[in-house]
Amino acid sequence: MGADTEQRTYSKRGNISLLKTSLIPVAALFASTSVLAQTTPAPDDIVVVATRVPEKLADTAAPVSVVTAAQLEGRQALSVFDALRLQPGLNVGGGPRQQGETPSIRGFTGRQIIITVDGSRRNTTETLRTPLFIDPSFVRQIETLRGASSAVHGAGGLGGVLALETISAESQLAEGQTVGARALAEYASGAGAQRYAGQVYGRAGAIDALFAVASRDSGPIRQGGGVELRPEDSNSKTWLAKVGVDLGGGFRLQGSQHYFALDDFGPNNPQADAAFPYMQAHRSTQDESVVNLTGGDAAGKWSLKATLYRTALRVITYDNPDTTPALTGSNGLTRTTGGALQSTLRFDVGGIANTLTAGIDAYEERDRSTSAGVGNSVTPDGKQTVISGFAQNEVGLTPWLSLTPVLRWDQFKTSVDSGSSPDKTSDRVTFKGTAAVRPLAGLLAFASYGEAFRAPTVSELYQNYSVATGFSNFRPNPALRPESATEFNLGLAYARSGLFAGKDRLQLRGTWFRSNVSDLITSVTVGTYSNPFLGRRPILQYQNVSRARRNGVEAELGYGIGALDLSAAYSRVRSVDRDSGANLFSPPDKLNLGAGLRIAPIATVRWNTLVVWAQDYDSTVLRRRPAYSAHDAFVTLTPRHLPFRLDIGVTNLFDKRYALYRNSTVYPDTYEEGRSVRMTLSARY
């Protein structure tokens, strides 16, 4: 038997053994005769905007998943990625530091996915730092739309969309309540993290307002097996202010300001382990302003939404003269200013129902960067402007059959301030079509074809750096073309109550997909140079290098009866270079299992098991990872007649030592946090 065959056989046996042992604690919990507590909201209670028209999750003909504020609270999440990593098709890489956490959807990463907060784009030129700075206590809901989405949501949606909605006084106030407050204190032993948060909110007449603050202080991270990741000293402070005004006539105006600041000392590659030689102090800030106007007629026949936003992400790296060589500071800023306007009209033509949505989107992304006080040619100063228009119509041919075509036109222009290279201007038309069938109550089947594209960024086009002591050197490529994708999805969803008993709840969603990617933008080595401290180092350039094909499946299952709540989610994706046959970046198969149990009127316990199969097929061998499983346990105590709640949890209960699969190959084995005891005390008025 050859070595490759032996490796595959070993991996398969290891995965089977892993799955069996991982299911034991979950099965033990399921076997209990006690009643489990509901932690997952029913799909009829969740409204999503995957198609830019609000609709219930159970009625959405798209591969979409949702994380609610209640689920973040139940997991005692220190980061929104604590919960997102459990969703099918969504993976998180970058190691255990919060500043290095980066998401991928169906194997697409970075600018290949769209991230929004309250409709504001979180664009960034950073490839090693997280694009999403937000405290979990500020989040009302996170929606993940998987698959080619440019026709609906604009440039960048090759992998999908990650859309966050923050809390407001409306979402926090109970019915009949006019004023309220919430506070929490949390401790997590894995990084010695202390997190504090507070909110005040209220309504007076037509005006409501909310103000929220949060902070987090962390130290060295204890990795699985007991090894500490040093240095890792970080602290963050953040606040959110939001005011809403009911204007009358069905219209509402809402404005918000969000600020986040993170200070840390560690490697200037936050995904690296302690072997990385370059340590510096950093400060990352995110400053975001959003204004939303919504309205419509009382009958629901017409609605309008307008959004204006500006978000600025700044990363400052400070001088460190105590290293060899001495490290100079840098200051990078990405500011995105944009807006969107859309209107939806519902009408009948010849007895056929139509829901027509049309709108325009536009934004300007401006990059500014200095190193040692002078212009930084790795991320040169420049801007990218995108203007687009779209139209979408859901046509209800019969009560059980609908067709939804979407057409979008985008024009983008990219330029570098120095004028050293010509401007890059182009446009693109993208299409998406969905057919949905609802033959039975609660049953939905859909098929869709979608197109997506992403224009190259300023730094991908114009980066130019030639310094002998640099970690890497770079070359520009103004001929770089946009990367694009076409994708087919086949999906099935089923939601029903009273299936086996009077009050049980069943939710099922599954999707098969195939996407073809052309002109994939990838950083490749085009030469080497001699670094006096590190030896031979690569010269890198972004190029259109491959045509890729991705295939995969995703499935979610939830069942509840009374207080019983069980869930499962599975995903698998494979990506192959259609020219060479090489296996490209493909997150490993994973299965997430969850359960909850109300053991007393005031006490609920929850268990979560994440099983990840071996990634032993990537043609980039350094990215391969062995299989692993991680288990978490949580207890929630809610005393009667008291406004307090106590959460106690243990993450990575068996102290598993594992490293996440990700696209970086320089320092690929930054192991995740080991066993961590979490305690959260919260109060709500």
From TrEMBL:
Keywords: Cell outer membrane, Membrane, Signal, TonB box, Transmembrane, Transmembrane beta strand, Transport. Pfam families: Plug, TonB_dep_Rec_b-barrel. Residues 57-161 form the TonB-dependent receptor plug domain. GO terms for biological process: siderophore transmembrane transport. It is a multi-pass membrane protein. One of its GO terms (molecular function) is heme transmembrane transporter activity. It comes from the Bacteria. Residues 1-37 form the signal peptide. Residues 259-653 form the TonB-dependent receptor-like beta-barrel domain. It is found in: Cell outer membrane. Its main location: membrane. The keyword RNA-binding does not apply. One of its GO terms (cellular component) is cell outer membrane. NCBIfam families: TonB-hemin. Belongs to the TonB-dependent receptor family. PANTHER family: HEME_HEMOPEXIN UTILIZATION PROTEIN C, TONB-DEPENDENT OUTER MEMBRANE RECEPTOR. This is TonB-dependent receptor. It comes from Sphingomonas pokkalii. The lineage of its organism: Bacteria, Pseudomonadati, Pseudomonadota, Alphaproteobacteria, Sphingomonadales.
